[in-house]
Amino acid sequence: MSFENYTFEVINVENIGNNILTVNKNSLTFDKSIADLLGFPSHIKPLLDRENKVFAIQACKSTTAKSIPFSKSESLQKGNVKLHSMAVKTTLRTLMENAWKTEMRYQVKGRVIPEHKAFVFELNDFKELPPHKGNNRHK
C-alpha cells in the first residue's frame, strides 16, 4: 500500500485546551488556551456585566486605562495564567456570593469572541471544585 491509498485528514493541533477560568480562594487561573486564543496579550481589561453575571477579559495594550498584566509571550508562557488581582477575584466572589461558597473553588468555561479579542465567562454556568488540599490542614 502506498501513502496515497489512505484517506488522511489533518488533526487540528491548535487550541487543545478547555478554555477554563478557575476562581480560587486567592487568585484566578486561566487555561493557557485562553492566552493562546487571545494572542498571549501582556495586558487585559477585566469587564463585568453585573445584571447578567457575566465576566469577560479583553486583550489590550499596557497603556489602556484600567488594564492589568496578564500573560507572558508565547515562548515564555509555560503553563496556565495565574492572575493575582484581589480586586477582580473579590468582585466575582461578591457578585456570586449567593451561589458560591467561600471555601470552594469554581470553574467556568469561556467562550472566545475573536472580533473583540475577548473571552466571556457566564458565571451562573459553573462547576464547583473542592478547596485546594493545602486549605484542609486542620481536618
Average the pLDDT over all residues and give the rounded result. Answer: 90
Helix-strand pattern, N to C? EEHEEEEHEE
> Uncertain runs with pLDDT below 50, 5 residues or more?
135-139
Specify Rg, calculated over alpha carbons: 18 Å
Number of strands: 8
Strand order of the largest sheet: 5-3-4-8-7-1-2-6
Specify the helix fraction band. 10-25%
Name the beta content range.
25-35%
Instruction: Please state the structural category.
Output: mainly beta
Number of domains: 1
Q: What is the approximate shape?
A: globular
First-last Cα distance? 63 Å
Helical segment count: 2
* Quaternary organization: single chain
Describe the fold and architecture.
The protein has 139 residues and is mostly beta strands. It has one domain. 12% of the residues lie in helices and 34% in strands. The protein is built from two helices and eight strands; from the N terminus they run ββαββββαββ. An eight-stranded antiparallel beta sheet has the order 5-3-4-8-7-1-2-6. The chain starts with 19 loop residues before the first strand and ends in a 10-residue tail after the last strand. The C terminus is likely disordered.
Which features does this protein show?
139 residues, mainly beta, eight-stranded antiparallel beta sheet, 8 strands, disordered C terminus
Could you give a short description of this structure?
The protein is mainly β. Helices cover 12% and strands 34% of the residues.
Walk me through the topology.
Elements: E1 20-23, E2 28-30, H1 32-37, E3 43-49, E4 54-60, E5 68-69, E6 81-83, H2 86-95, E7 105-113, E8 118-129
Antiparallel strand pairs: 1-2, 1-7, 2-6, 3-4, 3-5, 4-8, 7-8
